[in-house]
From TrEMBL:
The gene is folD. It comes from Chelatococcus asaccharovorans. Gene3D superfamilies: Leucine Dehydrogenase, chain A, domain 1 (3.40.50.10860), NAD(P)-binding Rossmann-like Domain (3.40.50.720). GO terms for molecular function: methenyltetrahydrofolate cyclohydrolase activity; methylenetetrahydrofolate dehydrogenase (NADP+) activity. Catalyzes the oxidation of 5,10-methylenetetrahydrofolate to 5,10-methenyltetrahydrofolate and then the hydrolysis of 5,10-methenyltetrahydrofolate to 10-formyltetrahydrofolate. SUPFAM superfamilies: Aminoacid dehydrogenase-like, N-terminal domain, NAD(P)-binding Rossmann-fold domains. This is Bifunctional protein FolD. It comes from the Bacteria. The keyword Oxidoreductase applies.
């Protein structure tokens, strides 16, 4: 049996295409396009790449991009003041503070300040609480994107066994909430889980979000399972040349691809969905803040 390779890159492109239409319709009725403010502190090269890519995609679908670049030496207080100003700015619909912050700055109080109606990363306690109690709100981008990919092969997951490996606030816990919302039977496994492979082998839907390169292999996968790999790990690749690296997921793709019914690759799986869902959330935030219905895109 050969697995469906779920093409997250293509799915994300389709989502952006639909968003372009929805953004144009929003602009025609409200008079302005949704605006996304991205705050980048410091010079971390990987963060700069992400932020550039976010800004480019934001503009490509017709939304406004508002970039704030601050030096790594910025004070906690000045950073928090910027978030307060963005909260108060009517031209800003979404606020994203790129993580991690440089050493010496504490992300927790910065995130806590973000207006929950502008929390396009879904990281505030208010957003987490809304998700946990099944009320409308902004859902973290990576979990939202992962769910869209699951639903692309399994539109109805009621009663299915779902195992999420990883319990982070950013990914594991919110994905578990989304699976539960769709009536899956959800298990959250983690570093202290006894006989992880046996737990994983129960899964009709296996979500890997641990951040350990190729940790889940054929032993962890039931025949015919849908495998969603959220991990993005950069590892040395001496075979490609001295000092070269490559991206791998938390799943040993080659070992699993023959057993799974469908699987997301890394790169090209969940990763591209993250930014597309950030754009989706910005449109959602712009609608919710104006009391408009958040219709499907
Ligand atoms: N406030 C905040 N929100 C975030 O959502 C956030 C953040 N901070 N800090 C950094 C992480 C990381 N992140 C990714 C986005 C896209 C890809 C992505 O598109 N990856 C491509 C590969 C990219 C490559 O080749 O390096 C893929 O998997 O195919 C990966 C990772 C968002 N993050």
């Amino acid at each position: 049996m050969s697995a469906i390779i779920i093409d997250g890159k293509a799915f994300a492109a389709g989502l952006r295409e639909r968003l372009t239409g929805a953004v144009a319709a929003f602009g025609a009725s409200v008079g302005t396009a949704p605006g996304l403010a991205v705050v980048l502190v410091g010079e971390d090269p990987a963060s700069q790449v992400y932020v550039r890519s976010k800004a480019k995609q934001t503009v490509e679908i017709g939304m406004r991009s508002i970039e704030h670049k601050l030096p790594a030496s910025v004070s906690q207080r000045d950073l928090e003041d910027l978030v307060r100003r963005l909260n108060a700015d009517d031209a800003v619909d979404g606020i994203l503070v790129q993580l991690p912050l440089p050493p010496g700055l504490d992300a927790t109080p910065v995130i806590a300040l973000i207006d929950p109606f502008k929390d396009v990363d879904g990281l505030t306690d208010a957003s987490a609480g809304r998700l946990a109690s099944g009320r409308a709100g902004l859902v973290p981008c990576t979990p939202l994107g992962a769910m869209m990919l699951i639903n692309s092969v399994l539109p109805d997951i009621a009663g299915a066994e779902a195992v999420v490996v990883g319990r982070s606030n950013l990914v594991g816990k919110p994905i578990a909430q989304l699976l539960l919302q769709q009536n899956a039977t959800v298990t959250i496994a983690h570093s202290r889980t006894r006989d992880l492979a046996a737990v994983c082998r129960r899964a009709d839907i296996l979500v890997a979000a641990v951040g350990r390169p190729e940790m889940l292999g054929a032993d962890h996968v039931k025949d015919g399972a849908v495998v969603i790999d959220v991990g993005i790990n950069r590892i040395p690749a001496p075979d490609l040349g001295e000092g070269k690296t490559r991206l791998v997921g938390d799943v040993a793709f080659d070992a699993v691809v023959g057993k799974a019914r469908a699987i997301t690759p890394v790169p090209g799986g969940v990763g591209p969905m993250t930014i597309a869902c950030l754009l989706r959330n910005t449109l959602t935030a712009a609608r919710l803040r104006r009391g408009l219905a958040d219709t499907a895109v």
